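Continuing the batch. This is chain 6 of the set; chains 1 through 5 are on the previous pages. Same settings as before, nothing changed between runs. Recording input and output for traceability.
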Amino acid sequence: MSASIIDGKAFAAGIREKVAEHVARIKSEAGITPGLAVVLVGEDPASQVYVRSKGKQTIEAGMASFEHKLDASTSEEVLLALIAKLNADPAVHGILVQLPLPDHLNSDLVINSIDPAKDVDGFHISNVGLLATGQKAMVPCTPLGCLLLLRDLMGSLSGKNAVVIGRSNIVGKPMAQLLLGDSCTVTIAHSRTKDLPDVVRRADIVVAAVGRPEMVKGEWIAEGAVVIDVGINRIERDGKQILVGDVDFASALPRASAITPVPGGVGPMTIACLLANTVTACCRANGLAEPEGLTI
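Output for chain 6:
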């Protein structure tokens, strides 16, 4: 058996098409243009590329894009004042502060200053609590993308055994909450879990988000399991810099029933779900019907 390779790039394109359709409907029926504000502090090269891509895809979907680029030396007071201004701006439905922030800025303070209803990253403590208690929340983009991929591939997830490898606030913990919400039996594992290979072998669904290149070996994967690889690690191989996931793709391929590649799997879903979250936030703010298939 060889796993089918999940085309996250194509699936993300479909999500962006749905977003564009909903944006056009909202403009036509309500006269409202969903707006996303992205705040970038400093000149981190990877963040700059990511912000440019977000801005481009926002505009392509028909939404309003507001970019705020601040010097690395920007004070906390100035950054918080900008966020307060965006919170109060009715044209802005989603606010994203690009991480990581410079060391002199308190990331938790900054994120928690965003209006939870506009927190399209889903990182605000209020959204974390709402998600954990099964209430309506803004959901972190990468876990949301993983869930949409799993639902599309497997249909109902009810009763499936799922192992999430990684316990970060950004992916691991919210991913586990989403899987619980779909009635999976969920284990959160990590690099210090005893007998980790045996834990993984019991899973119908494996979500790897541990941040270690090719840590999860093919022999850990149960025959027919679905593998979602969230990892993006840059390593050198044969004298070249390449991207690999947290799963050893080559050895997992013969055992899994389906697997996401790196790159081209989960990665493209993150920005697509950011756009989806912005549309959802716009609908909630204006009492409009939420877009089907773009949220939980």
